[in-house]
Write a structure and sequence with these properties.
single chain, 723 residues, mainly alpha, Serine Threonine Protein Phosphatase 5, Tetratricopeptide repeat, two-stranded antiparallel sheet, 39 helices, 2 strands, 65% helix, globular, Pentacotripeptide-repeat region of PRORP domain-containing protein, transit peptide, TPR-like_helical_dom_sf, PPR_rpt, repeat
Length: 723
């Protein structure tokens, strides 16, 4: 492919591993069996005599159809058996329900459940509940649980709890958990792992620790999966040292670390360029017979590239061969994606051209990744050249490839060109799908061609494509953007009529539009209606309204809204931090602390951002008294700020040119048993230096180094502050 390129990151040319020894086993052909048809096995249908499946023979055939994956034939046989006097076999029907649900055929799965009748077992109902939950039909899952002729067990409740957590409906998930306990159903380690994962994401790992400590009292010991969730949360919050402590404690809990345990730690070390610790951890993994494999390295490389740290990702790739691993197409595609995201498309193209010399053949994902980068850079001629190369290399584009191009064109307002690409898809054996049409609709709405969008929306059925929730929400957003509120209301009515009820995104779309136009009272009214319709507002909903109220200067209204939130709706940490920050910046530190009290009452605990916002709110006139009073109020709430929290407070105070106050807060920190770390001292040193107290800063630095509190190398590293 002829394109201008620049130098790409130097990547190792791996040695290909020897192909594994493969032994081919022949599979014997099944014996054919014949059965004489008698009058008992025949029935009239459409005026013709057909074989009547019955008894063991029919169920034997059903098992065979299900095992071979002939779903439609199996479904037809179930219908045929149920018309007779016998019931279909339970086990193959359970498998059939699972496969139908996996394929999105919930209605057909319901038919199988109905055909089983009283023969259905607890496994049957659990499979159907799981299918409902995976399809997002949570209310149907709840109705089925209530109608079960058996006492629900852990496998009944776990899918429901997981589905609610995934959708951010954590209070409802906790209510199901309480109902589970009330029914005498003991939660399993899977139940707790689901709740722990969600709690860590919503409220931080410290809140998750409380849930973890509760498990033994409920007769449920955490396993390695549970601890992996906690370690991953700690690493995501930047507390890798605390995660290492948990790792070290695993043997005392009877748990052996696996690759999933080590991977987030490795990612954190690599992200923060702590290469020595990363190397030591790799040695530990090998010693524990858990050597990193390609999957581990690919996870790290992908994570680094997603964070824009492509150079670090390349360094990790360089080290793969030292651990017996060979970079594969997944590795290089991640690097290419990272380069494209950083706008280094030429380097990505050069790496693509070198892949074959590395023993890797580009696949559709690789090409599509490059195409996305070229589209973002609006290099349309290069896009056409690369598409031609895909055909030459016997790797023709698929629907995902075309949708990537169409999406980019629409995002840049080139909807006419996107429509032409859509019309060309059939020439290459591809059919426009719901993603294609949603992209076109979004593009039309963005350039305010709402009538054209509505025309396409109405014609979608004739194109063999039924609108989904994304389609409705996209069109709704367009209608709201041009103040067509009656049409938006009619569209929402159609959603209910078409069995596609409005979700959180639907309501958030309307609320966002109202807030953007300053119609705050109407937005709050929609917020109320949303709850009445059984669609619980999520943290995003509250963030939208609260942010609009604060920008409009309605601080008290924002406080009232959050204070009056019902138990079923809990704003997240980001929402509260936004409010606290805005109030504190206005110098209303007492009101900010009141909001902190509300936040704690909702089961959320302050993080580094919370404390930093409070500290920024301290005016120069507040002085030491204000800072200490703030810390005392925090303690009165039952909170004990840790070292990270105190460091955030000290940093904010020093940035406010009040190092004298920071030193008093430091004394308060130590007197309350919270030990400072290197970051604590460095914050104070830099604060003194910035305010011109150079002699005091030098004396403190040398004093700390002589006592071994700080490394002596810091004297040279920090010397520029004292010049």
């Amino acid at each position: 492919m002829a394109m201008s390129t620049s130098s790409a990151p130097l990547l190792p040319k791996p040695a290909l591993p020897a192909p594994p020894n493969t032994r081919f086993l022949s599979t014997p052909k099944p014996r054919s069996t014949r059965r004489q048809a008698t009058a008992d096995h025949l029935h009239a249908e459409d005026g013709k005599w057909r074989r009547q499946p019955s008894g063991r023979g029919a169920n034997r055939r059903l098992r065979g159809l299900v095992q071979r994956g002939e779903i439609d034939e199996a479904l037809g046989l179930v219908d045929s058996i149920s018309r007779g006097e016998t019931c279909p076999a339970v086990v193959p029907c359970n498998i059939l329900i699972k496969r139908l649900c996996s394929g999105g055929r919930i209605g057909d799965a319901e038919r199988v459940l109905a055909a089983l009748g009283p023969s259905a077992t607890i496994v049957t109902y659990n499979t159907m509940v799981n299918g409902y939950c995976r399809a997002g039909r949570i209310e149907d899952a709840r109705r089925l649980i209530d109608a079960m002729p058996f006492a629900p067990d852990t496998f009944t409740f776990n899918p429901l709890i997981r589905a609610l957590c995934v959708r951010g409906r954590v209070p409802e998930a906790l209510a199901v958990f309480d109902d589970m306990l009330h029914r005498g159903c003991s939660p399993s380690v899977v139940t707790y792992s689901i709740l722990l994962d969600t709690t860590c994401k919503e409220s931080g790992y410290r809140q998750g620790m409380a849930l973890l400590n509760e498990m033994p009292a409920k007769g449920c010991e955490p396993d390695i999966v549970t601890y992996n969730v906690l370690i991953n949360a700690m690493c995501n919050e930047g507390d890798v040292d605390e995660a290492c402590k948990v790792l070290s404690s695993l043997p005392s809990h009877g748990c052996k670390p696996d690759a999933v345990t080590y991977t987030p730690l490795l990612k954190s070390y690599c992200t923060s360029e702590r290469w020595k610790e990363a190397e030591e951890l790799l040695v530990t993994m090998a010693r524990n017979k858990c050597a990193p494999d390609e999957v581990t390295f690919n996870t790290i490389v992908t994570s680094l590239c997603q964070k824009g740290l492509v150079d670090l990702a390349v360094r990790v790739v360089d080290q793969m061969s030292e651990h017996g691993c060979v970079p594969d197409i997944v590795t290089y595609t991640s690097i290419i994606d990272g380069l494209c995201n950083e706008k280094h498309v030429d380097e990505a193209v050069e790496l693509l051209n070198r892949l074959r010399s590395y023993g890797c053949k580009p696949d559709r994902v690789t090409y599509t990744t490059i195409l996305k980068g070229l589209c973002i850079a609006a290099r349309w001629e290069d896009v056409e050249s690369l598409l031609a190369e895909m055909f030459r290399n016997n790797c023709p584009p698929n629907e995902v490839t075309f949708n990537t191009i169409i999406s980019s064109l629409c995002q840049k307002g080139l909807v006419d060109r996107a429509i032409k690409v859509t019309e060309q898809m059939s020439e290459h054996g591809c059919i426009p799908d719901i993603v294609t049409y949603n992209c076109i609709l979004d593009g039309l709405c963005n350039i305010k061609l709402i009538d054209d969008a509505m025309k396409l929306f109405r014609n979608m059925q004739s194109y063999g494509c039924s609108p989904d929730i994304v389609t409705y929400n996209t069109v709704l957003k367009g209608l709201c953007s041009v103040d067509r509120w009656k049409d938006a209301e009619q569209l929402m009515a159609n959603m209910i009529h078409m069995s596609c009820p409005p979700d959180e995104v639907t309501f958030n779309t309307i609320i966002t539009s109202l807030c953007q136009k300053g119609l705050l009272l109407q937005a709050i009214e929609v917020l109320r209606i949303m709850a009445e319709k059984g669609c619980m507002p999520n943290s995003t909903t509250y963030s939208i309204v609260v942010d609009a109220l604060l920008k409009g200067g309605n601080t008290q209204a924002a406080l009232d809204l959050l204070s009056g939130v019902a138990n079923g709706c809990t704003p997240d940490m980001h929402t509260y931090n936004t409010v606290i920050s805005n109030i504190a910046k206005a110098g209303k530190i007492e009101e900010a602390l009141d909001m902190l009290q509300v936040m704690v009452s909702k089961g959320l605990y302050p993080d580094k951002t919370t404390y930093q916002s409070l500290a920024y709110g301290l005016s120069r006139e507040d002085g030491t008294y204000g800072a200490i009073r703030m810390l005392c109020r925090v303690q009165d709430m039952g909170l004990s700020p840790d070292t990270i929290s105190y460091n955030a407070i000290l940093l904010a105070i020093c940035k406010n040119w009040r190092t004298d106050v920071a030193i008093d807060c430091f004394a308060h920190m130590v007197s309350n048993g919270c030990m400072p770390d290197e970051s604590t001292y460095m914050t104070l040193l830099e604060g003194l230096a910035y305010e011109g107290f150079l002699d005091e800063a030098k004396e403190l630095l040398h004093n700390l180094c002589s006592r071994g509190v700080l490394d002596k190398s810091l004297i040279e590293e920090e010397s520029h502050y004292f010049k």
